[in-house]
Amino acid sequence: MIEKALIISLLCFGFYQVTRFGQIMFFVQRIATKLPAILGKPICLCLTCMASFHTLFWYPIFYEFNLQLIPVAIIAAGLNYLIGILSSYYE
After folding, report:
1. Which distant-in-sequence residues (6+ apart) come within 8 Å of 11 by Cβ?
2. Among residues 45, 55, 46, which one has the least CA distance to residue 9?
């Protein structure tokens, strides 16, 4: 279960990085900033918040849809928080 959360967390981090200013998918961030915060943050504005939306998106693609999705989303949120702290430290 932890390896599933790690894969989803790294996918979130990669998507978060390519939607930052000056990157190839910055247009997604511009669209997300126009949405209400409850919709924009899980798409690409908040790395920790992205775990919920991206787990719902990626988990059924890689694995079958089952009840492990909920703990995987919670673990991915924690991993995203730690990755966010580490990535801001090295900027």
Report:
1. 54, 58
2. 55
**Cα–Cα distance measured from residue 19 to residue 60, given in angstroms and rounded to the nearest whole number:** 23
* pTM of the complete model beyond 0.70: yes
Distance CA 60, CA 51 (A): 14
Per-position pLDDT tens, the chain of length 91: 899 999 999 999 999 999 999 999 999 999 999 999 899 999 999 999 999 889 998 898 888 888 889 999 999 999 999 999 998 876 6
DSSP letters for 33-74 = HHS-HHHHIIIII-TTTHHHHHHHHHHHHHS---TTHHHHHH
**Residues 56-64: contacts with CB within 8 Å, 24+ apart?**
58/7, 58/8, 58/11, 59/4, 59/8, 62/4, 62/7, 63/4
